[in-house]
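User: Just a sanity check before I run the rest of the batch. Below are the structure tokens for the first item. I only need the designed sequence back.
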């Protein structure tokens, strides 16, 4: 009686095991991103997006700072502990993320916008929607309210359980960063050079304290007090707004012509040497990113498309999903 020889190579059972392991590894790598969905609250809170938009629109009608403050809040949140609303936590001891030196300049209107939107959502869908998702939706809404592109927001984030001021240092771009420093920081979050240039376009709504750029117009170097990459007329304008002895807390619009409109003028300014920060101007000065700046300056549609792609990618950074984290009842405090 003959017995069939086992075929050479890998057994079917072994193949199945390996495939299963690969799937698990892929899920682990993707993390919570795979669980985000545009329709996450369709059943549990079907009116969510309208409720948030109404709250944000009301707040925006009271002060334009709502737009720039909310957009900056989202970026700062995602770059530190991931998009988990950890930046929203209030600490009576001054030890939370928002108390770090890099976050002290975050405008209160951004926090207030999310808190009010959360209260409106809780009144209809208590204990269902995370502060992290409300922040993501509110950010999309302020972009639209200022004339920027609308886009779908992936949802399903959970709120983080950690908020430490010590976590912020070294995790946010600094005004004096050059392109390579920015690229290294963005790459850690899976963001490309194009994403970096596109997200920088949010500075079209931005404003900055004089202290953040004064070195470029007064003390750049012993032989050249003004940064040579800066348009000299622009430098003079900034000097008029920020004289040497002025209060360093005075705020100057980063887009002097259309500061309340989300547009591509930011890139046109870079070409003209009107970037406020070194980190802005170097996007044009550096030959590696210059073509993208020129493209976005000449083609607003390309900028809007790239910005949407970058914002959706940013919104996936370090998200907590499933059983991770919590759904906070109050965005400023962990659940007890």
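Assistant: Here's the designed sequence for the first item:
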């Amino acid at each position: 009686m003959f017995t069939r020889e086992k075929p050479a190579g890998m057994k079917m059972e072994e193949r199945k095991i390996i495939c299963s392991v690969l799937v698990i590894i892929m899920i682990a790598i993707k993390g919570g991103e795979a669980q985000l969905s545009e329709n996450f609250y369709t059943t549990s809170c079907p009116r969510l997006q309208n409720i948030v938009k109404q709250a944000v629109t009301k707040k925006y009608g009271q002060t334009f700072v709502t737009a720039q403050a909310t957009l900056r809040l989202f970026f700062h949140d995602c770059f530190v502990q991931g998009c988990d609303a950890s930046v929203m936590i209030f600490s009576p001891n001054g030890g939370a993320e928002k108390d770090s030196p890099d976050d002290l300049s975050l405008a209160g209107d951004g926090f207030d916008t999310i808190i009010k939107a959360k209260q409106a959502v809780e009144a209809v869908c208590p204990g269902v929607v995370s502060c992290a998702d409300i922040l993501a939706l509110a950010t999309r809404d302020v972009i639209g309210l200022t004339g920027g592109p609308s886009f779908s927001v992936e949802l399903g984030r959970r709120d983080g359980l950690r908020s430490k001021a010590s976590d912020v240092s070294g995790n946010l771009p600094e005004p004096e960063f050059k392109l390579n420093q920015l690229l290294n920081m963005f790459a850690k979050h899976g963001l490309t050079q194009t994403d970096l240039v596109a997200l920088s376009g949010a500075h079209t709504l931005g404003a900055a304290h004089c202290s953040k750029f004064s070195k470029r117009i007064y003390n750049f170097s012993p032989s050249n007090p003004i940064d040579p990459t800066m348009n000299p007329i622009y430098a003079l304008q900034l000097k008029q707004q920020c004289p040497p002895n002025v209060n360093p807390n005075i705020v100057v619009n980063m887009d002097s012509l259309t500061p309340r409109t989300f547009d591509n003028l930011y890139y046109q300014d870079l070409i003209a040497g009107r970037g406020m920060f070194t980190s802005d101007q170097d996007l044009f000065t550096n030959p590696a990113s210059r073509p993208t700046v020129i493209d976005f300056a000449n083609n607003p549609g390309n900028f809007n498309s790239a910005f949407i792609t970058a914002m959706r990618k940013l919104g996936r950074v370090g998200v907590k999903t499933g059983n991770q984290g919590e759904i906070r009842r109050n965005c400023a405090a962990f659940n007890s």
